[in-house]
Amino acid sequence: MRHSSRLFALRVFLRKCTLFAVLFLFPFPLPCRSAHPPPQSPAHYSVKPIPLPGAAGPVALDYLAYDPASHSVWVPAGDTGSVVIIDAATNRARHLDGFRVSHREVAGSTLPVGPSSVTIGESAVYVGSRADSRICSFDRSAFQLLRCIELAPPAAGLTAAPDALIYVSATHELWVTTGIPPAGVPSADRSVQIFSVAQPGGLAPAGKIPLPASAEGYAMDNAHGRFYTNLRESGQTAVIDVRLRRVMNTWRSCDDPTGLAVDPRRNFLFVACGDRVLVLDLRHNGRLAASVPTGAGLDNIDYDVRSGTLFAAAGETGRLTLARVDSAGHPTILAVVPTARGARNVVAGPAGTAYIIDPLNARILKVQPN
Fold it and tell me: Which CATH superfamily groups domain 11-369?
């Protein structure tokens, strides 16, 4: 594939090849049972752009999170050096400033990086930054800085910088992955690093779990004490027992797995694979139950357990797919909503609402039923 140098830099910067056609090959036959045509028109949904304060052009956006306690969406806004907090009720945005921005080399291009990931804890919110490889905790209600630690020396580069942050309520721990695997930046030590956060805002090193490849994406099942992540280089999905801190199983998923979501009630795992989401049956050792066509350019996906709804934003085709999954794991597409080219990474909010990053236009797209 050919790209101009400018577009190639954006491709690396925005992760996961969302702006370009990518061919994903599946090493196994997909099930004959597929999703039904959408019974709802996109007219049943509205798409509201929420601009990010202080952003004048494309902004590096990656992991965002919805906090149900404060009804807010936390968005690390990369090269702006801030984290934007959006009120879900009013759509008003405030921002936490003071994060460092630095320039790092990625695939031959020098690009600005900053805060890039966030996860919601019980009393604190944790933010990771690629600029200085630091993780900071903030009071969940007052938004005040509590503590920062250095995950690795900045000189160690992006391979050692935080990628995903995951709060594990079953053990009161923060789990951290590193590198930017889809951009050709593998994890430095191919592990999940663990920090105890039992104390409010605490970040005490508590060990690590070695992996056979770089971790990419995650899903947390606190009810069963299971953590799921993709192994980027091997095209597998790993199951980790959070209490034993051990890889219990690995399953072949696809050549280029990205995001994950889980239904702990009915034991299904959802794996984003190129232009579709695979539905794996956890009751039968990860057996492929079905797939949901979405269009190309998937990244992180989400799932609302209460409604049984899967959310998958395809950046390359610029659309959000909503699908209902029944007790047998068979999906029915509820709607396909046009968004924007490059819009990917979705989190579910209240009452069927979804929030999607739109890096090229420096905004968040709020999709909600009319």
Answer: YVTN repeat-like/Quinoprotein amine dehydrogenase (2.130.10.10)
